[in-house]
């Protein structure tokens, strides 16, 4: 009897192992993979939704105690060291998301354009490498009005870079940056961001479509309020493909803020609101098993999210 019982247990163990292996293999094979179209352009096939990640270059800054406002510099450097990154400076990638969904070709944010540093403003170059005509883009959806997200909309001559695209912006973001009373009350030396928003959008005021976060902007593109980084910062869930995709824009800056979501980056205009938003949006992505694309996430800027200790881990797609 003992021998037969042992044989039964062994068979059951083998069956469970086989089922587990099959499950894991199925999960691994279901994870979308990237196809490099050219240096700076990566494609992800989600069936009825096609995703192209486009590099706009990167920025770099010296790491000092001002970058993270609520953590000691030594703690920040220790986190970077543990991740195998330099501890004296930060390279900040710029990743743009282009999605073909339904009949629309949608660009989320527009990069630095002709107004960034020497290592930025590479979007048009990488579109060309990918064989994508800027005139084929039918919609541009803006997440927020920081310069590295809107400067690529119009060139220095004032012409629209994506001439056939309808432009969508969050109403609360427009209302904050384009408010005349706020502009008049702001000292001239502090008007940099306000001036950028006006240069880009004032000539377009009659044609830009504004939407309330929470609305479906286009079929398959749902907006989600993510205030904090800026007053109207908005993220987007793209649906209709084999897997949902969340474009979370600047919900986090570089990956260390994914690992440490309670840290406040110097660019967050409302640090506490941004902290709460980071956790809410990260939890949403995990709950909905959505891929995550982020403007400042590690190359190619699209991947999966998981819980890591008291924070999260972003893993780029292979």
Automatic annotation (TrEMBL):
CDD domains: OPHC2-like_MBL-fold. It comes from the Bacteria. Gene3D superfamilies: Ribonuclease Z/Hydroxyacylglutathione hydrolase-like. Residues 1-28 form the signal peptide. SMART domains: Lactamase_B. InterPro entries: MBL_superfamily_lactonases, Metallo-B-lactamas, RibonucZ/Hydroxyglut_hydro. Keywords: Hydrolase, Metal-binding, Signal, Zinc. Residues 93-296 form the Metallo-beta-lactamase domain. It holds the Pfam family Lactamase_B. Belongs to the metallo-beta-lactamase superfamily. This is MBL fold metallo-hydrolase.
């Amino acid at each position: 009897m003992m021998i037969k019982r042992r044989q039964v247990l062994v068979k059951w163990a083998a069956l469970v192992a086989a089922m587990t292996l099959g499950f894991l293999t199925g999960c691994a094979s279901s994870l979308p993979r990237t196809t490099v179209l050219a240096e700076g352009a990566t494609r992800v096939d989600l069936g009825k939704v096609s995703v192209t990640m486009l590099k706009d270059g990167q920025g770099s800054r010296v790491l000092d105690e001002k970058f993270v406002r609520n953590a000691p510099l030594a703690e920040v450097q220790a986190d970077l060291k543990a991740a195998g990154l330099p501890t004296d400076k930060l390279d900040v990638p710029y990743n743009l998301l282009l999605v073909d969904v339904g009949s629309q070709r949608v660009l989320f944010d527009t990069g630095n354009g002709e107004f960034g540093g020497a290592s930025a403003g590479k979007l048009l170059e990488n579109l060309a490498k990918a064989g994508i005509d800027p005139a084929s883009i039918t919609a541009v959806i803006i997440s927020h009005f920081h310069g590295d997200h809107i400067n690529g909309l119009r060139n220095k001559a004032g012409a629209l870079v994506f001439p056939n695209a309808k432009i969508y912006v969050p109403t609360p973001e427009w209302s904050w940056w384009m408010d005349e009373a706020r502009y008049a009350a702001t000292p001239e030396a502090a008007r940099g961001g306000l001036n950028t928003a006006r240069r880009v959008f004032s000539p377009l005021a009659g044609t830009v479509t504004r939407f309330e976060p929470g609305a479906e902007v286009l079929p398959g593109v749902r907006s989600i309020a993510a205030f904090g980084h800026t007053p109207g910062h908005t993220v987007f869930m793209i649906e209709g493909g084999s897997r949902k995709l969340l474009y979370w824009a600047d919900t986090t800056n570089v990956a260390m803020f994914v690992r440490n979501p309670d840290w406040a980056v110097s660019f967050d205009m409302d640090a506490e609101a941004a902290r709460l938003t980071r956790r809410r949006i990260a939890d949403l992505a995990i709950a909905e098993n959505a891929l995550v694309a982020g403007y400042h996430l590690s190359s190619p800027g699209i991947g999966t999210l998981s819980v890591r200790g008291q924070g999260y881990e972003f893993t780029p797609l292979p």
